Amino acid sequence: MLKDPSKKYRPFPPVDLPDRQWPNRVLTRAPLWCSVDLRDGNQALAVPMNVSQKLELFQALVKCGFKEIEVGFPSASNTEFTFNRRLIEERRAPDDVWLQVLVQAREDLIERTFQSLVGARKAIIHLYNSTSPAQRRVVFGMSKPEIVQVAVRGAQMIQDRLPLLKGTEVRLQYSPESFSATEVEFAREVSEAVMEVWKPTPQRKAILNLPDTVEVAMPNIYADQVEYICRNIKNREALIISLHTHNDRSTGVAATELGLLAGADRVEGTLFGNGERTGNLDIVTVALNLYMHGIDPQLDFSALNSLREIYERCTGMTVPPRHPYAGELVFTAFSGSHQDAIRKGLAEWAKGERQYWDVPYLSIDPRDIGREYREVIRVNSQSGKGGVAYLLETEFGIQLPKEMQREFGPLANDEVDRLGREVSGAELKDMFWREYIERTTPWQLRSFVTESRNGTVCCRAQLLREGQTVELRGEGNGPLAALVHGFSRVGVPRFEILHYSEHALSAGEEASAIAYIQIRDAQGRTRWGAGVDTNIELASVKAVLSALNRALAG
Question: Has residue 2 been placed in a domain?
Answer without folding.
Answer: no
